[in-house]
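Issue 218. Parser rejects a valid record. Input:
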Amino acid sequence: MNAESAPAADPQPPALQADAGPPPTIHVPVNARGLALGTLTTLAVIFALDRAQSFVISLLLGVLLAYALNPVVAWLERVRIPRLPGSILVMASVVAALVLGTYSLRGQMESIIEQLPEAAGKFSAGLARTQLGQISIMQKVQTAATAVEKATSQAAGTPTTPRQPTTHVVVDRPSFQLGNYLWAGSAGALGFIGQAAMVVFLTFFLLLGGDTFKRKLVRLTGPSLSNRKITVQILDDINDSIQKYMAMLLTTNVLVALLAWIAFRWIGLDNAGAWAVAAGFLHVIPYLGPLVTAGATGMAAFMQFDSFPAALAVAGASLAIATVVGTFITTWMTGRIAKMNAAAIFISLLFWGWLWGIWGMLLGIPIIVIVKVVSTHVQQMQPIAELLGE
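Output the parser choked on:
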């Protein structure tokens, strides 16, 4: 008797497949009133930060400098120097170091400023030569295209029509008035000096106060011991994070200045020390600072060597140093300090740069670090901590 093979299993009928039901969904409750109030509050805070820009920036700069210098004042207290003389000594040392550093580089800075008109003339001449070369190439291409078009028209038997000359429209522009420009620059310089003085005095008074504001904030949290412990932990974490961030800034800026000085001296750029110090200072501003340094040093190299390859070499070296230090050292140290993802840091820089410009890019990372620390310890802000975390 022949063995019969077992019948194959029938596939599931289409009707049964259709009765499997829709995919599972998640129903998220939305509080429309709370969402609207949160949106309006956010817009009001952004508007207030924009209107009070100068005050808030001065306040944040004073707080950051006070956090950075407070360990030195505390160390002086441990060696039997009272807080008032210690604060005066620290602030006087910082101001004196800035003044002496600027004065020591005064000659190189004056040389750079005196050479600016010549640099602008050489740069304009170089651009004109480049544009003339491009125009000659374009003329050759247009001549060849006209010849090809004429030959094609003759082969097709169609008459060629001459092109109409282009009509140029002259637009009157307002004349440049040097007096208005100098007056605006002087007013801006006076405003900067006034704001710097405010930051210095604010830093001094914060150093003099010591832990006064910390104790007041702990008292404002109420009599609950748990709330006080959480407040103290938040303030300690903010203090530790900002001090580490300021130390990271100092380390990376000194490294950028040292590497830039070595590269500029090796290439043979004049006033290498002044340009290196400028590179170190401008590296504080993420992304924009290195671009400004590269453009300025490239123009200085073109003025000195009268060669675009030399200018590109100097600008490229400046950008390479800033990129290597910023990518490997700054990013790694910032991640270790704040324990944040790179996308959150970049979005924060974009937002604060849009709101406050250069100052926003300078203060964006400390602000987001403070927000990350506070949101980690406050239960209602846990979603923000999750978005900012690694």
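Fixed in the parser; the record now loads. Residues 52-131+196-388 form one domain.
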